[in-house]
Design brief:
Order of helices and strands: HHEHEEHE
Number of strands: 4
Number of helices: 4
Distance between the termini: 116 Å
Structural class: alpha+beta
Helix content: 40-55%
Strand order of the largest sheet: 2-3-1-4
Largest sheet: 4 strands, antiparallel
Length: 148
């Protein structure tokens, strides 16, 4: 009989220990879940930002784009309108710029004469399309691809 009393007490203690052990595991799980929830709510970096810039920045960027796309006769196709002396080249240049202000033009010295070169076309098809229009005014015009 004495053993049965001790046995009941041991069983009760074992059950209490089992419950405590399970509560400890539940408590650890509960703390872990709360930690992950709070980590997701708080972050060091925000995904949204507000960009405020001066409107003159856009104008400066447009000027930079224009500068980068400037007339480069050594990369693309151009149209040669005239080959001759300096004074006649300058005269034809001024005449061309007055009649076609949207098309780039330049005078290049090619020993012993000067060349009037117009346009800056990335491919030959665009150069040929504009050559057809320019031949009405300059019948001697032709397409060139200059080298340095």
């Amino acid at each position: 009989m004495i053993y049965s009393v001790y046995f009941k007490e041991i069983v009760i203690l074992y059950q209490i220990l089992f419950i405590m052990k399970n509560l400890r595991n539940l408590f650890v799980c509960f703390i872990t879940i709360l930690t992950f929830l709070f980590i997701q709510k708080t972050s060091a970096q925000s995904t949204q930002f507000n960009l405020s810039q001066d409107h003159s920045f856009e104008k400066l960027l447009d000027q930079k784009k224009l500068f980068n796309n400037n007339f480069s006769i050594y990369k693309n196709f151009s149209i040669q309108l005239y080959y001759g002396d300096k004074s006649e080249s300058e005269k034809k240049f001024n005449e061309f710029k007055n009649n076609h202000p949207n098309i780039d033009a330049t005078i290049i010295y090619s020993e012993p004469k000067y060349k009037l070169i117009v346009g800056n076309y990335r491919n030959k098809i665009d150069a040929e399309r504009n050559l057809i229009n320019l031949r009405r005014f300059y019948p001697e015009a032709f397409i060139v691809r200059l080298t340095k």
